[in-house]
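Async update (no meeting this week)

Hi team, since we skipped the sync, here's where things stand on the single-chain job. The sequence we agreed to prioritize is pasted below, unchanged from the tracker. I ran it this morning and attached the output directly underneath so nobody has to dig for it. Comments welcome in thread, and please keep replies under the output.
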Amino acid sequence: MSGVEWLLDTNVVIGLLKGYPPALAMVEQHGLVVEQAAISQITRMELLGFPRLTSEEEMAIQSFMGVCHVILLDEEIERQAIQLRRTGSFKLPDAIIAATAIIRRLRLLSLDQGMSGALGRLPETA
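Output:
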């Protein structure tokens, strides 16, 4: 996974796929290159598990995921997610995504200011 710098929150991926101006601006501001980005396995589940997903949307998601990296959950990420949940600041999917960024030492891009703010207040993890 050499060269990966960013972890994209689910809301950023949705924003990019739908052309949502705040997501596009965030990506431009940070100079994001999708090939240098990853998503969590939980993001893949959230995107593909949407109940009213059309076949066109599924194709767009699959195409996007073909370019970026998908980080699978492991015990290290699980332990960190549990710690984040215990702080009371994160819902489970957000805790998993944040834990993935922490453990893999990636910069998290999220449109959720609460999530970004809570993550910024955490002590540095080894």
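Quick observations from my side:
The helical segments are 10-18, 21-30, 41-48, 55-67, 75-86, 92-104, 113-120.
The chain has a mean pLDDT of 90.
Reply here if anything looks off.
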